[in-house]
Amino acid sequence: MSEFKDWYYSVPYFTRYWLTFTIVLSIIGRFGLINYHYFVLDLHAFIYQFEIWRPITALFFYPIGPGTGFHFLINCYFLYNYSQRLETGMFAGKPADYFYMLLFNWFLCVVIGLLVNLPILMDPMVLSVLYVWCQLNKDVIVSFWFGTRFKAMYLPWVLLAFNLVLSGGGMMELIGILIGHVAFFLLFKYPQEFGGPALLTPPAFLKRIFPDTRYVGGFGTAPQARVPTRPGGTVFGGHNWGRGHTLGGN
């Protein structure tokens, strides 16, 4: 039990509670402790019945069942793996900046979800975070199923194609890629390569709630205007989905 507790509290703050709320709310819905219909995003209930919690619960809830359980576990793995890498990497020592990016991605998920009648937001939200990490670590080699290896920049598109072939879906992955691209562009490309203002700078009150801490290292390198960037990433062993390592590793 102490080992689990040590592991749990070693997970970065926002990743820890995002994963925790996702698992808890999904289990509550799975066993009917609360009717899961109250968790999903519904335009009529949100606007006309003033059920204002739905955009939040729709982020954390996922309908676990015989046909969705494996996909839920994969989503949890991606959430834990790539959110943790971003939070301890490019956003290390800047918790308010990471939280503000998550809020921005979540807001876009909610807006698009209401427009296209998307009741569950876990897929696009996780893909948006994964996309940002992949863009910051384009040249890192990741391993996928069946021993396939390719650059991280292609991973979101491989996941899109994979779900398109297996389940005939892909729309939620496409939305996640779009949201991730907008976040990456506003965070890094626009201010650093095009000289625009930093549009996703967190407000002062968030900085007061989550003050910057000492930088402790990280993954990836943000793009810089006319300055060569160092290759991102680090060496990882194993062959799990999306687990990256640099060329010459493993």
How does this structure look, described?
The chain is mainly alpha-helical and 250 residues long. 56% of the residues lie in helices and 4% in strands. It is built from 10 helices and 3 strands. Strands 2-1-3 form a 3-stranded antiparallel beta sheet, with no helix packed on it. The longest helix is centred in the C-terminal third of the chain and has 23 residues, at 171-193. The protein is globular, with a radius of gyration of 18 Å.
Whole-angstrom Rg: 18 Å
Separation of the first and last Cα atoms? 32 Å
Largest sheet, spatial ordering of strands? 2-1-3
Overall, the morphology is globular
Class from secondary-structure proportions:
mainly alpha
Residues in helices, as a percent range = 55-70%
Count of alpha and pi helical runs: 10
What proportion strand?
A: under 5%
Number of strands: 3
Low-confidence stretches: 226-250
How is this structure best summarized?
By secondary structure, the protein is mainly α. It has helices at residues 2-10, 13-30, 43-48, 54-60, 69-88, 95-116, 122-136, 155-167, 171-193, 204-209, and strands at 141-143, 149-151, 243-245. Helix 2 runs antiparallel to helix 5.
Write the layout of secondary structure elements.
Elements: H1 2-10, H2 13-30, H3 43-48, H4 54-60, H5 69-88, H6 95-116, H7 122-136, E1 141-143, E2 149-151, H8 155-167, H9 171-193, H10 204-209, E3 243-245
Antiparallel strand pairs: 1-2, 1-3
